[in-house]
Amino acid sequence: MSLTPLPQSVAVPEQPIKILLVEDERALREALADALTSEGFLVTEAETGAAGLNVFRTATPDLILLDLMLPEMGGIEVCRSIRSSSRVPIIMVTAKASEADRISGLDLGADDYVTKPFSSRELIARIRAVLRRAEAASSPIVAGSRLRIAEAEVDLEGQRVLRDGAVVHLKPKAFQLLAFLIENAGRVYTREQLLDKVWGYDYAGETRTVDVHMHALRQAIEAIPAEPVALQTVRGIGYVLRRPA
Ligand code: CA
Hints:
Elements: E1 18-22, H1 26-38, E2 42-46, H2 49-59, E3 63-67, H3 75-83, E4 90-94, H4 99-108, E5 112-115, H5 120-138, E6 146-149, E7 152-155, E8 160-163, E9 166-168, H6 172-183, E10 189-190, H7 191-199, H8 208-221, E11 231-234, E12 238-241
Parallel strand pairs: 1-2, 1-3, 3-4, 4-5
Antiparallel strand pairs: 6-7, 7-8, 8-9, 10-12, 11-12
Helix pairs in contact: 2-3, 6-7, 6-8
The structure holds calcium ion.
């Protein structure tokens, strides 16, 4: 009788974080690739949007740095295509800081922006922040955790909000909206995105619904609801939950 030996467990070395860099400007692309590689990232370069999409499909990067202004297939089109199948973090690299670009990028689901010119130190800080956020969003919330948000204590596990020790009445959807914003603190969402994320893609409601729930949350949490410190409005875009570092 022969027994097949069990495979020995082997310590798996920590995998380097894979970054796909889509940038048509060669000098900038090479400089960025050098800077990222020296930080320990594994960088794959793509010169066009189409090449970037090919790499995305085959190499499963952990994060994508995507230039907005690309010839033929532009960054927005690339972002839209990736988002149709993946939540991989995307940082848009743009030469224009105009609001219109920011809004269209946010609607498409880009996670952050850097505006040219930027330092490699700034870029790397943004990359690490986006990766941390992505990891936090995918990991379960620590059991029993209570968070201080403005004037209130949020009990994520018990799905309740306390103020001065007393439970504040909130509709379940309002709590879900709050929990979503806490998990994604610092990230700006449009009303449409919040409807999709919290109410679900099938929900046929109006964006006003989000405003109504945000109003209720501010009443529950903020010292002065009209001057929120945590649940902030980003004019012309949507909402963000800010937490002190
Ligand atoms: Ca470009």
